[in-house]
# Entry
Amino acid sequence: MQFDVTIIGSGPGGYVAAIRCAQLGMKTAIIEKYDVLGGTCLNVGCIPSKALLDSSEHYHNAAHRFAEHGIKLSSLKVDMAQMIRRKQDVVDQTCKGVAFLMKKNKISVFTGVGSFVDKNTIRITKKDGSTEEITTLKTIIATGSKPVTPDFMGYDKNRVITSTEALNLTEVPSSMIVIGAGVIGLELGSVFARLGTKIEVVEYMDRILPGMDTDCAKELQKSLKGLGIAFHLSHAVSEVKGGKKQVSVTMKANNADNPVTLTADYCLIAIGRKPYTTGLGLENIGLTTDDKGRIAVDDHLQTSIEGIYAIGDVVRGAMLAHKAEEEGVMVAEWMAGQKPHIDYNLIPGVVYTWPEMSSVGKTEETLKAEGIPYKVGKFPFKALGRARASMDTEGLVKVIAHKDTDELLGVHMVGPRVADVIMEAVALMEFRASAEDMARICHPHPTYTEAVKEAALAATENRALHV
# Structure
């Protein structure tokens, strides 16, 4: 079978690339090694984790905040098995939606491991060992990533787990150790903390969420501590031992001599993800990966082999589903002769804890390192009537603008619904707006978005009105 373009991998980057290619008139195929489309994000990542985050937040509010709202409950308990069933229903519906979109756009779907025979021939190896081959003019590699699990951490999928297994626990653990204070560790740690699990987070760095805004990270850590999460920052893990019913984690503070051992029901390894290119047969077409497992690409995401592109987690940049989607669209449009562009500085990042944390643009640390003069405006959510009405007063909005030109350089938030609120900043920064532009936009009252206006006012000659 001959195709104009073949996509290997059906995660957000891959399936969106396939849809855009089909929309542009290309005869398109997509190859997925699993029986269900959607990749990590839809099956064992973004979608199921958000389902559990919402479920756990509902329970936590019912247990700790409903009474203050004048809502009285009795005999409240967690039905973890039902929580997991609901999560799976959400996943199934979403994945079926992707399958429908493939059919709607007349995209040929192949199930099996796709590997290069040569630059225009791809072999598909099915579960039963049988194979078939297709030919293609162009190929997009979108095979995503998988969790990093060092050998010394004893990953056994039983007591030493990753996010994949954590999303399918059918009973609430009494205790869990989370290795890594990044997005995945904090999100899943907060899920179980809300349900009553004793959570201890071990992080090698001296802060949570390295690379994100320091002020917001400190605010979020304070909120998570209030949830009962304990943090062991500046600690290195030397050994993880999993047993039948418990796990032990040996760690040592960076400035200490003696190691300390923690025990818990489970240990969640959340120290990052690495590109997944196993079985692609890259060596058959002369492609190699760097020391981090990434495939090198040019500004148009084409590899060193003409007609072969790579997107998402297998190339440089943040490992984010929406980044992969934008890259998939860009490659499709570039192949069709258009002139697409992505501003990687304006790809927002989100942490879906509660309160949420979101960010776009430069941080203060980056601006200092680059020698760019800047000014800062901050506004706390506790000063908003809307936040007080919903009892979501933790967090702040921080606006960073150029000291001389007033152009928005970075916006960082921790607070209620900031995963959605951040898009105001993204849209304005795409058009190179100033802090004054942001401040002069009329925001509806009462809303959480008023905090953005007030932070922009604070960055504009310290003009915040409500603080």
User: Anything to note?
Assistant: The first strand starts at residue 2 and ends at 8. The chain has a mean pLDDT of 97.
